C-alpha cells in the first residue's frame, strides 16, 4: 500500500505543479511549456519507432504536419466544427497517411527507411508549398477559428483569447498521449517490439509476424505525432510548410532523442526540455545561436553519447561504486 | 608623322566625347521622359502636415554607432525590432536596427519624450525571428509579455508581419509595419486597430509602375512578370497587372512566372523570358533571389531593364557593374524628384549620417557600402521610425489607445519634404511615390546634386526621378472592412 | 535552328549545367557515404564554406583561378580536421552518432561563417575570360556555364581514374570491403579514410567555387543547395557514383524543362521523381541493399 503511494506521489505532485503553472509563471512560460509538451510528445512518438524498433525516420515531420494541416484545414473549411472532432481529424489524417505509406516502408530498414521518409516528407512539403489555394502555400493557413472546449449540456470553456484554458486543454491532451504511449510500451505487444529491435529473427521464430508488428508501431507512432501537430496548430493558430513539414522539423525529435537518451522512454522528454531551455537561454545572451548549438551537439555526441539519461545512469553508477567502496572501506 | 597621328588621335577623342555628349542614349531617354513629367502639384490633402521633422532640432549624433549603441534601461519607452538577425536574411535585421536605433538615439540625445507626465528615454531591443513563423510568434510574445515593449516594429516578410500583428492585437500593444507590403495585412480578416502599416503597399507599387509606364514614359509595351512564389510575390504581381490595366491598357503581359524562394538556378526561367521578348521584366524579388536573377540574366545576355522594388543593395550593384543595372527602374517611397538636396537642412540631415558612416562606423556590416548614404529603403525606415516617436510624443503617452487616436489621420512631413498621411479606417499610408532610373556615375548628378555629384563611382544608381502623385496611387482599401464601409479612398 | 528549337536546346544545356553542379556536390557526398558509410549532413556547409573561401581568395589575389585551386583545398583541410578529431571518434556509435555530429559541425560552420564574414550577401564575378556568350546558330549560350559542365566532367574523370586505375584506389576499395584484412596487411586504414573524406569535401569545395559566380554568397547557401545534393544521392543510390551522375542530369533536365512547360509544378516533379523511385527501389536507382 505504502509502496503504491510512494510510486504515485511524485506523479500527483507533478500534476498539481502543472495545474498551478499559469498562476505562478504567467502567460509567457505557460506558452513555453505548451511548446515543450508538444515537442516532447512528438519526440517520444519518434522514439517509439527509433528506440523500440530501431527504425530511424528522417521524415517524421510528415505526420506532425498531417496532424497540423488536418486540424487547420478542418477548422478553416468546416463551419462550426467542435474542438474534439477537429483534433480527431488531425489524428486521423496522420493515421491515414501512415496507412498509405506503411506498406511501402515497412519492408525496408536502416538507411533506406530513413531516406524514403525524407523523400515522402519532402514530397508532402512541396505539395503543401505549391497548392496555394488549399494550403496557403509558403504562407500557410492562419487565423482559423479555435472552437471552445465543450461537452454539450455540461460545460463549455472558450479557448480563444483564454490562454490558461488552452494550457489546461493542451496539457491534458498531451499528458494523456504520453501516458498512452508509455502504457503501449508496457503491453506485451510493446515488449515484442524490443524483441524485434534486438533480434528480429527470434521473434519471427516465436511465431509473431515481424512486418505486421512493425506496421502497428509505425501507425501508433504516426498517430501521436499527429496529436502533437494538431495541438501545435491550434496553439499557434498558424500552419505553414516550414514549421510543420520542413526537414528541420523532422530533425528536431531526433536531436531531442539524442540529447535525452535513446534507450529510455523518458529520454526524449528530457532531451526536449534541455534543448528548449538551451535555446531559451542562449537567445537572450547571444546571437551566435548556431555556434553554441553546434558546440553542444558535438560535445554531447563525443562525451555523452547516451544523452542525458545515459549521463544520469553513468553518474548513478559512479555514485554507487563510490558508496560501495566507502562501505567496504568502513567494513 | 608621329605628331600628326597624335593630333588626329586627340581630335578623335574630343570628337567622340562630344558625340557621346550629344547622343548619349541614357540622357536622351531621360530627357524624353522628363518632358511630360510635369505632374500636378502636391495634392492639397498632403500639402500641410500636423508635424514636420525639424533637422535643426536633432540631438548630437556624433557618438552614434549602430554596432555598439547602448540604450537606457528601466522605465523607458520600449520598442522591439522584430526581424531576421540570423537565418538567410540576417542582413535585413541589421538594416532595420540601424534605422530604428538611429531615430531612438536621436530622441534620447534630445532628452527623451514626455509621456504620462514623465520624461522617458527610448529603449530599442533586437528580437530575432530567424525568418521562421514559429520563432516569430515566440519572440513577439516574449517581447510583449516579458520585455513588456510598447511597440513591435517589423519586418521582412508579410507572413511574419501577420503574426506580429496578431500578437500585438492579442496583448494590446502597437505594431508598426515599416516594410512588408502585402495589402491583405490590412484587409477585413486581418485588420487590427493596433497594427499600423507605415510603408507603401503592393497595390501602390502596381498602380505606381502602371502610371509610370502608361502616363509618363509611354514607351515600353511588353512586360514579363517574375516573382517569388509566396503571398508577397503573388500579391505584388497581381497589383502590377491591375496597375497596368488601370493606367496602361495598351500594355501587354507576355509571360509570368513564380519561382520558389531562395532559388539557385534561374537559367530556365530566363530562357523563357528571352523567348518571350519583353521590353521590361518586372520583379518583386528581394536579395539574394533578385540579385541572382539580375546577375544570371546579364550573364545570359538578357539586356532588358528590370522594374523592381528592392534591388538597390549597393554591394550588389557594384558587383554586376554599372552597365548591367543601367536602365533599371525602381519604385520607392523614399525618392525626391530632381536633385535630392534642395535645402541646407536636407544636406545637414544627409551629412550627419554619411560622415558618421565614413569616419566612425568600423564594424561589419555597418561600415559597408550598404549603409553609406542612409537613403533609399534604409532612409525610409529611419523616417518611419521618427514618425512613430513623433506620434508617441504628441500622444503624450505609451497608452496604445492614445497612440491610435493621434496616429489615425495624422500627417507628417519628412526631411525630404514629402508628407505621409495615415488613413484612419485601415491604417495604410497615403503618400506620393517616386520612380527612378538607374544611371552610371556620370549622370547621377541629376539626383546627387552636391559634392561629389555621384552616389557611387563604380555602380549605377539613382538618376532621373519622377513623382507619382498620391491621388494616382491610393492604397487599396478593403470595402468589406467595416471601418471603411462607405468611405472614399482617402478614408473619409 | 529556329528560335523555339534553340530555346529547347538552351534549356537542355541549362539542365545539364545545373545537373553537373549538383553532381559535383552529390558526388562528394556519395564518395564519403559509399566508402566510409558516413552520412555527412555537413556537406552543404562545406560547400558554402568553399564559396566563402573563394570570395576571400578572390578579394586577396584578384584571381578566380587561384580561388579555384586554393579554396577547395582549404575546405578539404577543414574536412580532414573534422574527420580526424571528431568523426573518427564517434564512428563506433554508428549512424546516429555521425548524424548528430555532422549536424553539429554544419551548425558550427554556419556560425563560423557568420562570425568571420558577416551576414551580408557577398558578390563574386565571373572571370573575364569566361564572360560573354558563344553563338551556335541561333543559340546564344554563356561561356561560363559551358565551363561548369567541362569542369565537372574533368573532376569526374579524375575521380574515376583515381579510384579505379591507381594503387591508392585499389587500397581504398579494399578497405571498404574488408577493413580488418586491409589493416592486417599493414596499411593504415584510418589514414585512407581521412583521405577519402578529404576528397569528398574537396569535390563539394569545387562545386562551391564554381557556383559562386552565378550566385551571391550568403549564409543560406548551404540549405539552398545542400538539400538538392542530398536528394540526388538518395535517389541515385547511396554509394553509387554512376547513380549520382545520372540522377543529377535527370534532375537538371526535369528542373529546366519542368519550368519551361509547367512552371508551377517544377519542384514537385523533382521530389515526386525521388519519392517514386524510392517507392519502387527503396535503395535508390543504383543502390545496393545493405
List the helices and strands and how they pair.
The complex is a heterotrimer of chains A (331), B (492) and C (290).
Chain A: H1 2-53, H2 61-77, H3 83-105, H4 110-130, H5 132-135, E1 141-142, E2 149-151, E3 155-157, H6 163-186, H7 188-198, H8 200-205, H9 210-236, E4 238-239, H10 241-244, H11 247-260, H12 267-285, H13 289-303, H14 307-330
Antiparallel strand pairs in A: 1-4, 2-3
Chain B: H1 2-23, H2 25-34, E1 51-52, E2 77-83, H3 90-109, E3 113-115, E4 118-120, E5 122-128, H4 133-145, E6 151-154, H5 158-171, E7 174-177, E8 195-197, H6 202-217, E9 222-228, H7 231-247, E10 252-259, H8 267-276, E11 280-283, H9 289-299, E12 306-308, H10 314-325, E13 329-332, H11 344-359, H12 376-395, H13 400-407, E14 411-413, E15 419-422, E16 429-430, E17 433-439, E18 461-468
Parallel strand pairs in B: 1-14, 2-5, 2-6, 6-7, 7-8, 9-10, 9-11, 11-12, 12-13
Antiparallel strand pairs in B: 3-4, 13-17, 14-15, 15-16, 17-18
Helix pairs in contact in B: 3-12, 4-5, 6-7, 9-10, 12-13
Chain C: H1 3-36, H2 43-61, H3 64-90, H4 95-117, E1 133-136, E2 139-142, H5 143-165, H6 167-177, H7 179-184, H8 189-211, H9 221-236, H10 241-261, H11 266-280
Question: What would you say this structure looks like, in words?
Answer:
Chain A is mainly alpha-helical. Chain A has one domain: Orthogonal Bundle (ABC transporter involved in vitamin B12 uptake, BtuC), CATH 1.10.3470. In chain A, 79% of the residues lie in helices and 3% in strands. In chain A, the strands form 2 sheets. A two-stranded antiparallel ribbon of chain A has the order 1-4. In chain A, strands 2-3 form a two-stranded antiparallel sheet. In chain A, helix 1 (2-53) crosses helix 6 (163-186). The mean pLDDT of chain A is 85. With 492 residues, chain B is an alpha/beta fold. Chain B has 13 helices and 18 strands. Chain B has helices at residues 2-23, 25-34, 90-109, 133-145, 158-171, 202-217, 231-247, 267-276, 289-299, 314-325, 344-359, 376-395, 400-407, and strands spanning 51-52, 77-83, 113-115, 118-120, 122-128, 151-154, 174-177, 195-197, 222-228, 252-259, 280-283, 306-308, 329-332, 411-413, 419-422, 429-430, 433-439, 461-468. Chain B starts with a helix and ends in a 24-residue tail after the last strand. Chain C has one domain (3-222). Helix content of chain C is 75%, strand content 3%. The longest helix of chain C has 34 residues, at 3-36. Chain C starts with a helix and ends in a 10-residue tail after the last helix. Classes of the chains: A mainly alpha (331), B alpha/beta (492), C mainly alpha (290). The A-C interface holds A 56, 104-105, 107-108, 110-113, 115-116, 118-120, 122-123, 125-127, 129-130, 247, 251, 254-255, 258, 262, 288-298, 300-302, 305 and C 39, 86, 89-90, 93, 95-97, 99-101, 103-112, 114-115, 227, 230-231, 234-235, 238, 264-265, 267-268, 271-272, 274-275, 278-279, 282-284, 287, 290.
